[in-house]
């Protein structure tokens, strides 16, 4: 394993190298705190160990009888108080700066989901771009200890977030299901993504490169498997990326009124299933007893399709079991495809075995 | 504190002093109303829980020895982490201190027993049912709750029946804590021996008095928080659900209003124990008794206005972030006063270093490191960088394991002879101390580096760059665990079965009423109050 | 019984008792049953009810023991003081319990609700207008009307305030040694409490049928029902305590200067009263 540039180092013992003004300030603050604390620590325990060495009975030391002194008490109340104030002042400046999300060049909405991230470019260059970002590390590497692990094991994704260098990026976080938290250490940014609320933060990366982070709020079973990767590009490269991405999106945007064949849908559906559903319902469709219900043999999957469309679109809460709503995450085609896939896969042979995107579109209203 | 005398009052009571015989067999423990027996029950219970929580910790460390998922599914790993936290906090550390309170407070203030002896036993006998609910929740469909010991909504809303069992277990433990605290407060306020004014009371009683107030103030708030979780889960309320106008972050505010005072609940009695031990082995009166009392009270009061330092990354308004940063940092001041007073007590004393003193010094040294990392975390921008990483895990194990747990060990060695009537084996005590100290640091010091380098907590698997320090921590954890097994089999059990008879006052520098009664302390003590001068 | 006071031990410590451990078992059954119940396990309700009934039996026996000890002259003045301290701090813990729910109401109303409606959140909830008493931003909650102070809550306020007065009259009567007068005013207090509960039930009925205001009515319904519900529960407990006290008054357990059970129950009743005043203002008026 080697160091991951923009991610953790092997045997790393300190923060990753900062690439924003704020991260630099945090880095310096931490050094300052560390030094002050170390000095106090050495002073205080210097005294204690001196006393332990010298004032021991085995050396024949007799105990003194003093046991209080108001002056001393005041001194060691006031001096630490002043030290603490001294520590808080420089930190205050940074706190205020971190909170100033005004005048951003680009605004990106980041949505935490069990267990992936969604990115929507809202304002600025690239507005309109939107994609999901999933863990790219192959499953075998995780569960099979004989497989060699990549250098970026668990900190690589299929679609990284991309931003231009030296531009102020405002990040808006929110979540679909539970609380997640979005962080890139090199930027000095960490912001919880809270379902139903938006919160914001910002950064201005000063160096081109790839930067890595991981979800940092316990969000269920795959908490450790939803990394964050940000690709910082030069202005020109960013433009190219935006153009490319827009073309790609246009090509992918399916006409919801197109009629698909069942095989096309099943093929597409398998991809959607693996990326979104298998985490809970499992690739086998058997689910996890007590936690996630099976789809294989499930009456809804094998029954009338309208019911299943409704569940997938709007989610379902059944006691502790929660099916998330997918209407904001997946397109009509994707939903139609994945439903068709589940209706014909494993041992399922539903009567109504095909769902077209148009039906999903209709059900959305 | 000046010298003490137990005056033997003439037996002029008309009632029968031995109305209740010394009970025997299982009834003695099940139906106990004796503070010493109940204290013993508490101590054994908490030690059992320490073992169970420790086994869970070792399972965590086993999985984290290497990257990749070797042993457990991630959902089970999360259960391990959650239950480890819950069991250690509510099952091991808190009841252990209550056990000490039961044994020592009546002896220290010259009371015949706790104020409400039957309720005292009720407080204890609520703990095993709660533990049973928690532990058996592993066996129900979906397993134990895996939402972290903080049980954050709305993840806690997603959990299976194990979550409800945890909620009800915490309700029971909360009721137990509240009754226990009422008992302790009443005992201390109402049953001190004549002549023992509050400002002459041993420090351990002071710290427990203040702790009991904290408990009464915050346990009901926790009960409220988890009750809302319960109704959100099953009865369709929307406290923590934005769709209905609620707010997940509201849970965190309520939880941490409990949670932060809670961590001081776990450390103030530890301060009390250390404040008894240091003077005893320095053969010198505690320096700055009054300022120790004021510092303890200040810590307790400040603890109510710092809770949101656990929430800096939730996105609070900047004024709130600044307020909670300043308030949190202020706690360093009274805590510092305590450290300085201990060192001033040692200064120019005539010290010996038996095991209790070693653990007390170890406590001061390592706890302060944990305090400093706490202070570093209190600085909002730094916390934003380190929140939910292993740096936090390192911080709180420094204050909880090397803090609370070491103080408990110190207290065991100090008062154990009074409980069992036998001295522990000094060499073995020292082996226990040095192994604990070293393995503790091997386990938890590397976690600072992991956190700084960015390893998130509550992770079943991690990027391969973090491997080396994780391996080290796992090795340390097994070393620390074996040391505690050694403690049980080679220190505790032998010193219950026999050994050198303990003198009434085995430590020549020790002071206090507890040393005026025989070792082991007889079943009934101070039935007529001693006069305290 | 004051005649026996002189012979009371310095501090009475009861001998071994089976009630605490049985109480623990009863609560285990209650809680395990409740956990099963909320998860629709078949035997859940039965176990829970068995647990509650056993717990009540334990309490009955336990308090019986205490009363017997008290009547047997074993309780010195010092024990009386212990009871005073413990009751005060128990009530304080109850204050903190209600504090959690009042805090939730305050936070939801003054902090998260405006937040949900502010500019940033327009990204998520474009059409949401934040005002207290709405059905939440998702539109998944049926519309409902909110509960005003008239007429029931105001009547209830009068009932509870009056009950505070009748209880005080009863206490004065006890101190003056008029047993039947004590009992009569105490009975009036309990009656007022019961009437309060009756009105409360009527109000809930009205909420569910006429206002469509339910436990599931978003954060408004959640805070409304949990606050008033826990208060009602405490009124019930207080009324039970007063009933036991009434029984003991009639049995002649209390003397003009030795009757802490009466006072403790009265403190509790006044506490419940004060909580209501808080509720009346923040839940119904504001
Ligand atoms: C016994 C338990 C205990 C104790 C005593 C403390 C003590 C302190 N803690 Fe800790 N803390 C926890 C248990 C404890 N903590 C736990 C369990 C968590 C994690 C919970 C979770 O998320 O699961 C946590 C988390 C935690 C966080 C949140 C981290 C995060 O999640 O991002 C913060 C942030 O401010 C913090 C701060 C502090 C501070 C400032 C103190 C102070 O009280 C420390 C004061 C002591 C000193 C400073 C040292 C001695 C002083 C001197 C020698 C004087 C001179 C010094 C100076 C002038 C600098 N703690
Ligand atoms: C309150 C006290 C307390 C104590 C004493 C401990 C003790 C220990 N803790 Fe604990 N820990 C917490 C409180 C505590 N912890 C909390 C609150 C959390 C947060 C939970 C959360 O995130 O929700 C946490 C989280 C936590 C984590 C992070 C998990 C994660 O984020 O996923 C880790 C990881 O290493 C850890 C390790 C340990 C270890 C190795 C010990 C050791 O000190 C334990 C030593 C004891 C024993 C080992 C038992 C004795 C041995 C036996 C019974 C025999 C078997 C032994 C052998 C064969 C060797 N703890
Ligand atoms: Cu998403 Cu952790
Ligand atoms: Cu805290």
Q: What structural keywords apply?
A:
heterotrimer, B: 533 residues, mainly alpha, Cytochrome C Oxidase, Chain A, 17 helices, globular, C: 286 residues, Helix Hairpins, Four Helix Bundle (Hemerythrin (Met), subunit A), 2 domains, 0% strand, disordered N terminus, binds heme-A, binds dinuclear copper ion, binds copper (II) ion, oxidoreductase (chain C), cytochrome-c oxidase (chain C)
What does this structure look like?
- The complex is a heterotrimer of chains A (365), B (533) and C (286).
- Chain A is an alpha+beta fold.
- Chain A contains nine helices and twelve strands.
- The longest helix of chain A is centred in the first third of the chain and has 34 residues, at 21-54.
- Chain B has 533 residues and is mainly α.
- In chain B, helix 3 (74-109) runs parallel beside helix 6 (161-190) and helix 6 runs antiparallel to helix 7 (203-234).
- Chain B is globular, with a radius of gyration of 23 Å.
- The model of chain B is unreliable at 1-20 (pLDDT under 50).
- By secondary structure, chain C is an all-alpha fold.
- Chain C is globular.
- The chains are: A alpha+beta (365), B mainly alpha (533), C mainly alpha (286).
- Bound molecules: heme-A (2 copies), dinuclear copper ion and copper (II) ion.
- Copper (II) ion is lined by residues 260, 263, 309-310 of chain B.
- Chain B: Belongs to the heme-copper respiratory oxidase family.
- Chain B: The chain crosses the membrane at residues 41-60, 80-103, 124-146, 166-191, 203-230, 250-274, 286-308, 320-344, 356-378, 390-415, 436-455, 475-496.
- Chain B: It catalyses: 4 Fe(II)-[cytochrome c] + O2 + 8 H(+)(in) = 4 Fe(III)-[cytochrome c] + 2 H2O + 4 H(+)(out).
In short:
Chain B: The chain crosses the membrane at residues 41-60, 80-103, 124-146, 166-191, 203-230, 250-274, 286-308, 320-344, 356-378, 390-415, 436-455, 475-496. With 365 residues, chain A is an alpha+beta fold.
Assigned CATH architecture of chain B:
Up-down Bundle
Give unreliable regions of chain A as ranges: none
CATH homology superfamily name of chain B? Cytochrome c oxidase-like, subunit I domain
Q: Give the number of helices of chain A.
A: 9
Q: Can you tell me the overall shape of chain A?
A: elongated
Structurally, the number of domains of chain B stands at: 1
Share of helix among residues of chain A? Answer: 25-40%
Bound molecules: heme-A, dinuclear copper ion, copper (II) ion
């Amino acid at each position: 394993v080697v160091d991951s540039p923009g991610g953790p180092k092997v045997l790393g013992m300190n923060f990753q190298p900062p690439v924003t003004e704020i991260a630099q300030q945090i880095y310096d603050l931490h050094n300052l705190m560390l030094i002050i604390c170390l000095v106090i620590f050495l002073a205080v325990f210097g005294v204690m160990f001196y006393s332990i060495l010298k004032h021991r009975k085995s050396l024949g030391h007799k105990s003194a009888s003093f046991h209080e002194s108001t002056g001393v008490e005041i001194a060691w109340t006031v001096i630490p108080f002043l030290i603490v104030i001294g520590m808080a002042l420089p930190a205050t400046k940074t706190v205020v700066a971190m909170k100033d999300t005004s005048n951003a060049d680009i605004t990106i909405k980041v949505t935490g989901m069990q267990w992936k991230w969604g990115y929507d470019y809202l304002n600025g260059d690239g507005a309109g771009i939107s994609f999901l970002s999933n863990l790219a590390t192959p499953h075998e590497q995780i569960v099979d200890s004989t497989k060699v692990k990549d250098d970026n094991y668990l900190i690589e994704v299929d679609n990284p977030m991309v931003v231009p260098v030296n531009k102020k990026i405002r990040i808006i976080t929110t979540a679909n299901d539970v609380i997640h938290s979005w962080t890139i250490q090199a930027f000095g940014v960490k912001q919880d993504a809270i379902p139903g609320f938006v919160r914001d933060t910002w950064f201005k990366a000063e160096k081109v490169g790839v930067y890595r982070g991981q979800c940092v709020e316990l969000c269920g079973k795959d908490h450790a498997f939803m990394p964050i990767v940000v690709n910082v590009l030069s202005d020109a490269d960013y433009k190219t990326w935006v153009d490319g991405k827009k073309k790609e999106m246009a090509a992918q945007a399916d006409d919801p009124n197109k009629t698909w064949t069942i095989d096309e849908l099943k093929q597409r559906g398998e991809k959607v299933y693996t990326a979104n559903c298998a985490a809970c319902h499992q690739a086998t469709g058997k689910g996890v007893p007590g936690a996630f219900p099976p789809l294989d043999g499930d009456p809804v999957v094998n029954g009338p399709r309208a019911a299943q469309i409704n569940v997938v679109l709007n989610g379902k809460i059944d006691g502790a079991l929660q099916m998330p709503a997918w209407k904001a995450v997946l397109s009509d085609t994707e939903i139609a495809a994945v439903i068709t896939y589940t209706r014909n896969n494993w041992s399922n042979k539903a009567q109504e075995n095909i769902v077209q995107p148009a039906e999903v579109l209709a059900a959305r209203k | 504190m000046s010298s003490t005398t137990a005056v033997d009052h003439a037996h002029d009571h008309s009632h029968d002093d031995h109305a209740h015989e010394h009970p025997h067999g299982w009834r003695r423990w099940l139906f106990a109303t004796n503070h010493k027996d109940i204290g013993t029950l508490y101590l054994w219970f908490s030690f059992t829980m320490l073992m169970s929580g420790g086994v869970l910790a070792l399972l965590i460390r086993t999985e984290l020895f290497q990257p990749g998922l070797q042993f457990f599914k991630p959902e089970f790993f999360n259960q391990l982490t959650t239950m480890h936290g819950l069991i250690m906090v509510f099952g091991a550390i808190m009841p252990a201190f209550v056990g000490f309170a039961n044994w020592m407070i009546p002896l220290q203030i010259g009371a015949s027993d706790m104020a409400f002896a039957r309720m005292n036993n009720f407080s204890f006998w609520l703990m095993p049912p709660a533990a049973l609910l928690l532990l058996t929740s592993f066996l129900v469909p979906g397993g134990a709750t895996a939402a972290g010991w903080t049980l954050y909504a709305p993840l806690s809303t997603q959990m299976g029946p194990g979550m409800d069992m945890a909620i009800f277990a915490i309700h029971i433990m909360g009721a137990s804590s509240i009754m226990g605290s009422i008992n302790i407060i009443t005992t201390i306020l109402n049953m001190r021996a004549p002549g023992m004014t509050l400002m002459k009371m041993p420090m351990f009683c002071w710290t427990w008095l203040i702790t009991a107030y904290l408990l009464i103030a915050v346990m009901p708030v926790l009960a409220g928080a988890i009750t809302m979780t319960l109704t959100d889960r099953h009865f369709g309320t929307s406290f923590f659900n934005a769709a209905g106008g609620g707010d997940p972050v509201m849970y965190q505010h309520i939880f941490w209003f409990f949670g932060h005072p809670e961590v001081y609940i776990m450390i103030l009695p530890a301060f009390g124990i250390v404040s008894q031990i240091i003077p005893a082995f320095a053969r010198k009166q505690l320096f700055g008794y009054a300022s120790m009392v004021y510092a303890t009270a200040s810590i307790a009061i400040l603890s109510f206005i710092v809770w949101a330092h656990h929430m800096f990354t939730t996105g609070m308004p900047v004024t709130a972030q600044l307020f909670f940063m300043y308030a949190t940092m202020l706690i360093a001041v009274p805590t510092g006063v305590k450290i300085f007073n201990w060192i001033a007590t040692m200064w120019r004393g005539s010290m010996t270093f038996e095991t209790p003193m070693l653990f007390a010094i170890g406590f001061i040294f390592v706890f302060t490191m944990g305090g400093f990392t706490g202070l570093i975390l209190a600085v909002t921008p730094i916390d934003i960088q380190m929140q939910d990483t292993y740096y936090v895990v390192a911080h709180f194990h420094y204050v909880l394991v090397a803090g609370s747990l070491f103080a408990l060990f110190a207290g065991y060695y100090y008062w154990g002879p009074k409980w069992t009537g036998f001295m522990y084996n000094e060499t073995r005590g020292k082996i226990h101390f040095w192994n604990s100290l070293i393995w503790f640091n091997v386990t938890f010091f590397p976690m600072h580096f992991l956190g700084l380098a960015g390893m998130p907590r509550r992770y079943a698997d991690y990027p391969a760059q973090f491997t080396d320090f994780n391996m080290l921590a796992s090795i340390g954890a097994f070393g620390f665990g074996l040391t505690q097994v050694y403690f049980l089999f080679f220190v505790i059990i032998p010193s219950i079965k026999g050994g050198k008879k303990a003198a009434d006052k085995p430590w020549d520098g020790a002071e206090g009423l507890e040393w005026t009664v025989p070792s082991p302390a007889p079943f009934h003590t101070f039935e007529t109050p001693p006069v305290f001068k | 019984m004051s005649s026996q006071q002189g012979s009371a031990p310095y501090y009475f410590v009861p001998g071994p008792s089976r009630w605490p451990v049985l109480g623990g078992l009863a609560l285990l059954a209650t809680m395990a049953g409740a956990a099963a119940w909320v998860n629709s396990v078949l035997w859940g309700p039965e176990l829970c009810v068995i647990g509650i009934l056993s717990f009540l039996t334990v309490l009955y026996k336990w308090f019986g023991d205490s009363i017997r000890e008290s009547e047997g002259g074993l309780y010195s003045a010092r024990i009386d003081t212990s009871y005073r301290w413990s009751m005060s701090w128990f009530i304080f813990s109850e204050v903190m319990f209600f504090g959690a729910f009042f805090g939730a109401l305050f936070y939801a109303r003054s902090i998260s609700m405006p937040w949900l409606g502010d500019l940033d959140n327009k990204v998520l909830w474009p059409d949401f207008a934040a005002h207290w008493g709405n059905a939440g931003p998702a539109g998944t909650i049926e519309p409902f009307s909110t509960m005003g102070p008239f007429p029931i809550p105001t009547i209830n306020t009068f009932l509870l305030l009056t009950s505070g007065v009748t209880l005080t009259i009863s206490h004065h009567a006890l101190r003056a040694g008029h047993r039947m007068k004590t009992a009569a005013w105490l009975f009036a207090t309990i009656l007022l409490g019961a009437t309060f509960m009756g009105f409360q039930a009527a109000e809930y009925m009205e909420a569910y049928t006429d206002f469509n205001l339910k436990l599931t009515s978003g954060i408004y319904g959640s805070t409304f029902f949990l606050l008033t519900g826990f208060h009602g529960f405490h009124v019930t407990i207080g009324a039970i305590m007063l009933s036991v006290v009434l029984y003991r008054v009639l049995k002649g357990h209390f003397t003009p200067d030795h009757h802490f059970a009466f006072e403790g129950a009265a403190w509790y009743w006044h506490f419940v009263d004060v909580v209501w005043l808080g509720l009346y203002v923040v839940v119904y008026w504001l």
